[in-house]
């Protein structure tokens, strides 16, 4: 058994078996991370470059830790302090790195489709660590892993994705993945942040009333308001957004049921999520971060083999 | 196809292995049993079951180890990992590793590496059902062997377990 794809560009290209294989392999890596020596020699002979053209804390550290836990050699590239500031093209940069005998590229880029472009032009395996407003596949995988770990299943699970659906690659990857695994999805947020035909296109429900969405769901995956990607004002103020769509403890307590609250980070505290929710008993946010390392180990491990 | 152990022989052999382990580790003080995933587990389950009928089951520490991430051929072919479950410390204890067939010795090499990541055992012994003694690629020998056989590399030893393959039997193909 192996993945049906050579790269991880998006959840869109994966099938159900691929997703299941990644999640079950991640489970074994999670056990590795509980051992006294949290490291295995699997990728001893593999060199991986982390190519980050966009800021990141969690994802970059999580990937780097996953790579080191697999005993891979790791190179880090941050666009701000590199020759791309002098005008070198993406392809030139990557080809130069590859000529130093690098096997895999983990890339984050602000342009949607950048990893797809690389995959067509270079021989190394590519892992998309977030491209523009397209996909963030490892985040969706770790979200799914965390949901499954907490609630025991994905099939039939009711997941509300709340917030800036339009600009969120996390939302898109999550929707693809959850629909493929048989979960039900509702997207909730202000109409200006939800693309018009998303319901038909992706098989999800659209709800503009936050309380109704929360009452329906088992899990609320709350997204960050991505001010950096909004080139025009899409709601009047952060305070107003918080009043209408922010997740508050009082709101959760009024539901009459317990739901799980997730967030991919970084959190805008007091905007999409209030502090007493983020740090409260409903939240599994730090668990998501822990699972991220195991899930990324699984992805790298499964892509590193060269049977083909 | 040739039968190496029939169902009845296999059950006697398992009993003997359990007794031999016990003979050298009376009461299993500071001894732990670790079966190797995936197929060594069938043998270790049987041996542990046997031991439970002889000594106080509370004295038996039994774990399962998966060595997929320690293999030396990870880049050649993809192997699917199974669960590892060692719910006790192996530090300063005698570990009895259990697997079904000892062939090239590479699995055991990987298992030793994996084991050391859990702590420093005072001693590691190896117990296998079938020892294909002339096909070793590494200097590894069993301490307890159910049956030692001479085989060609082109041959295959198949160990069948009732739990999975409907009957107990070891055959040479």
In short:
Chain A has 308 residues and is α/β, with parallel strands linked by helices. Chain A has helices at residues 16-32, 58-69, 90-98, 114-121, 137-151, 169-180, 198-202, 210-216, 238-245, 249-253, 275-278, 285-304, and strands at 47-52, 73-78, 104-109, 125-131, 158-162, 184-188, 205-207, 219-222, 260-262. With 173 residues, chain B is of the alpha/beta class.
Helix/strand layout:
The complex is a heterodimer of chains A (308) and B (173).
Chain A: H1 16-32, E1 47-52, H2 58-69, E2 73-78, H3 90-98, E3 104-109, H4 114-121, E4 125-131, H5 137-151, E5 158-162, H6 169-180, E6 184-188, H7 198-202, E7 205-207, H8 210-216, E8 219-222, H9 238-245, H10 249-253, E9 260-262, H11 275-278, H12 285-304
Parallel strand pairs in A: 1-2, 1-3, 3-4, 5-6, 5-8, 6-7, 8-9
Helix pairs in contact in A: 1-5, 1-12, 2-12, 5-6, 5-12
Chain B: E1 2-5, H1 7-24, E2 31-36, H2 40-52, E3 61-65, E4 94-102, H3 106-116, E5 123-132, E6 144-149, E7 157-160, H4 162-165, E8 169-172
Parallel strand pairs in B: 2-3, 2-4, 4-5, 5-6
Antiparallel strand pairs in B: 1-8, 7-8
Helix pairs in contact in B: 1-2
Description:
The longest helix of chain A is centred in the last third of the chain and has 20 residues, at 285-304. In chain A, helix 1 (16-32) packs across helix 5 (137-151), helix 1 (16-32) packs across helix 12 and helix 5 (137-151) packs across helix 12 (285-304). Chain A is of the alpha/beta class. Chain A has two domains: 11-135 and 291-304, Rossmann fold; 137-288, Rossmann fold (3-Layer(aba) Sandwich). Chain A has a five-stranded parallel sheet, with helices on both faces. The mean pLDDT of chain A is 92. In chain A, helix 2 (58-69) links the parallel strand 1 (47-52) and strand 2. Chain A has twelve helices and nine strands. Chain B is an alpha/beta fold and 173 residues long. Chain B has one domain: 3-Layer(aba) Sandwich (Rossmann fold). Helix content of chain B is 27%, strand content 28%. In chain B, the strands form two sheets. Chain B has a five-stranded parallel sheet with strand order 3-2-4-5-6. Chain B has a three-stranded antiparallel sheet with strand order 1-8-7. In chain B, helix 1 crosses helix 2. Chain B starts with a strand and ends with a strand. The mean pLDDT of chain B is 92. The chains are: A alpha/beta (308), B alpha/beta (173). The interface between A and B is medium-sized, with 27 and 22 residues.
């Amino acid at each position: 058994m192996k993945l049906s794809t050579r790269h991880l560009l998006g959840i869109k290209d994966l099938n159900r078996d691929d997703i299941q294989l990644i999640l079950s392999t991640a489970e074994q890596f999670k056990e590795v991370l509980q051992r006294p020596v949290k490291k295995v020699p699997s990728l001893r002979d593999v060199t991986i470059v982390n190519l980050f053209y966009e800021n990141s804390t969690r994802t970059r550290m999580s990937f780097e830790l996953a790579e080191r836990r697999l005993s891979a050699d790791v190179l880090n590239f941050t666009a701000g302090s590199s020759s791309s500031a002098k005008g070198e093209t993406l392809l030139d940069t990557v080809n130069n790195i590859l000529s130093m005998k690098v096997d895999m590229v983990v890339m984050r880029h602000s342009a949607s489709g950048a990893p797809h472009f690389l995959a067509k032009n270079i021989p190394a395996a590519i892992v998309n660590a977030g491209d523009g407003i397209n996909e963030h596949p490892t985040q969706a995988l770790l979200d799914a892993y965390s949901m499954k770990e907490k609630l025991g299943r994905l099939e039939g699970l009711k997941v509300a994705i709340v917030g800036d659906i339009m600009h969120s690659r996390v939302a898109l990857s999550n929707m693809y993945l959850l629909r493929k695994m048989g979960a039900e999805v509702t997207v909730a947020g202000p109409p200006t942040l939800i693309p018009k035909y998303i319901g038909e296109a992706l098989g999800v429900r659209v709800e503009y009333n936050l309380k109704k969405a929360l009452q329906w769901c088992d899990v609320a995956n709350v997204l960050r308001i991505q001010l950096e990607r909004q080139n025009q004002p899409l709601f009047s103020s952060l305070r107003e957004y918080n009043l209408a769509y922010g997740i508050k403890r009082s709101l959760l307590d009024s539901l009459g049921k317990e739901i799980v609250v997730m967030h991919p980070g970084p959190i805008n505290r007091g905007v999409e999520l209030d502090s007493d929710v983020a740090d409260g008993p409903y939240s599994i946010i730090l668990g998501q971060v822990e699972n991220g390392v195991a899930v990324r180990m699984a992805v790298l491990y499964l892509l590193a083999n060269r049977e083909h | 196809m040739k039968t190496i152990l029939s169902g009845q022989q296999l059950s006697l052999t398992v009993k003997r292995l359990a007794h031999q382990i016990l003979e050298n580790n009376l009461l299993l003080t500071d001894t732990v049993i670790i079966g190797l995933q995936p197929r060594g587990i069938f043998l270790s389950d049987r041996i542990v079951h046997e031991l439970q009928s002889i000594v106080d089951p509370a004295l038996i520490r039994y774990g399962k180890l998966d060595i997929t991430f320690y293999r030396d051929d990870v880049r050649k072919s993809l192997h699917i990992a199974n669960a590892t479950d060692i719910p006790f410390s192996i530090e300063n204890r005698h570990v009895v590793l259990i697997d079904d067939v000892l062939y090239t010795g590479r699995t055991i090499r990987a298992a030793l590496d994996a084991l050391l990541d859990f702590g420093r055992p005072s001693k590691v012994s190896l117990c296998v059902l079938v020892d294909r003694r002339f096909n070793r690629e590494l200097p590894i020998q069993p301490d307890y062997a159910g049956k030692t056989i001479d085989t060609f590399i082109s041959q295959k030893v198949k160990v069948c377990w009732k739990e999975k393959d409907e009957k107990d039997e070891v055959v040479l193909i």
